[in-house]
Amino acid sequence: MTREADGGHTAGGRPRVVLGVSGGIAAYKACELLRRLTESGHDVTVVPTDSALHFVGEATWSALSGNPVSTRVWDGVHEVPHVRIGQHADLVVVAPATADLLARAAHGLADDLLTNTLLTARCPVVFAPAMHTEMWEHPATQENVATLRRRGAVVIEPAVGRLTGVDTGKGRLPDPAEIYEVCRRVIARGPGARDLAGRHVVVSAGGTREPLDPVRYLGNRSSGKQGYALARTAVARGARVTLVAANTALADPAGADVVRVGTAAQLREAVLKAAGDADVVVMAAAVADFRPADYAAAKIKKKDGEEPPPLALVRNPDILAELSADRPRGGQLVVGFAAETDDVLAHGRAKLARKGCDLLVVNEVGEHMAFGREDNEAVVLGADGSQTPVPFGPKEALADTVWDLVAARLPAAAAAEPSGESTGTSAGKSTGRP
Predict the structure, then answer these.
(1) Residue 247 placed within a domain
(2) What is the CATH number of the domain that holds 286?
(3) Which residues are annotated as a binding site?
(4) Region Phosphopantothenate--cysteine ligase: which residues (predicted)?
(5) Number of domains the chain is built from
(6) How far apart, in whole angstroms, are the C-alpha atoms of residue 153 and residue 417?
């Protein structure tokens, strides 16, 4: 395939992706990521390290990508591959990224083709780490991750799960489908997408359930899809994301620390704990306003000829109002959601004033509206009197609009480094926190 001399997309308009693969057991999962990238129309060049080839051979990478595989600086010297591959890319993604690879990238080493590519890339760079928990938690690794993020790279938080052998913990490579979603969003937003770099955001999602007896509960129709879209887009924009998920059946977004809860009380505890060092809290979950006053330890039986006893309810804590009134750090932004069935804007404005949050996303809901669907329509009301309509479209689009409004209101973070650092990405803001 003919490539343009000045970089960017291929002559056929396909985005160019470099898939770097380092030497970890999770290298085999990169084959699935490669398949998703190629099948969605990306032109992929695979750059495995020598160690990676011990796990997956060169022939596999070539067959799946449809392109020759570049492995060494000395291959095709006349084409200067150690410079050209990075220069012509729209995205570089390294999956898996081992502790060794992260260290070499953070320190600007160039001892193989992949690290040379990272040094010459001027496009967004995504690292998907995979290693044992002890290696991920080691101060050296955390310093390297902080350095890469400070320079503008997206370093995805590893997942929690089964590692090699009998070990379990944080360090598992996120699901390739979720890594692909991060890559897709990063490419779509381009080099200037790092406006949440160095920020910690907390997002709640799903719907709480308040138990009545061991088999019944009071709940709602929320699927969690809008909250998950907010979490995924925040990861792609460089944020460290804590997702508090209530009763969802969705796959964990790559790069988010997921805390699972059931009731409103559990959600409150998890959100308040995570909000302690958060720059932004987005309460997208549908939290039950009420819970049964009494919990029956055994299933409530139906009795012939008798009507059921009245169901007494008590109020749940107002988490959004509590967050807005008692912010644990200066400059923290709080975003709420209001699901309304009538007089949407009037109810939304009243709720915004009552809750005291900075932004309120107001949308109309119903049996076939918003809940469980892939699309949404809303108006984002600001405490400053602003009103931003978001037309009907994918929930991802609404999520990006929310983060646009949030980013414009965040206080300035630590000064960002100039673009063109060793990760090859545009610089982002950072507090230096890993």
Answers:
(1) yes
(2) 3.40.50.10300
(3) 289, 299, 317-320, 337, 351, 355
(4) 201-434
(5) 2
(6) 12
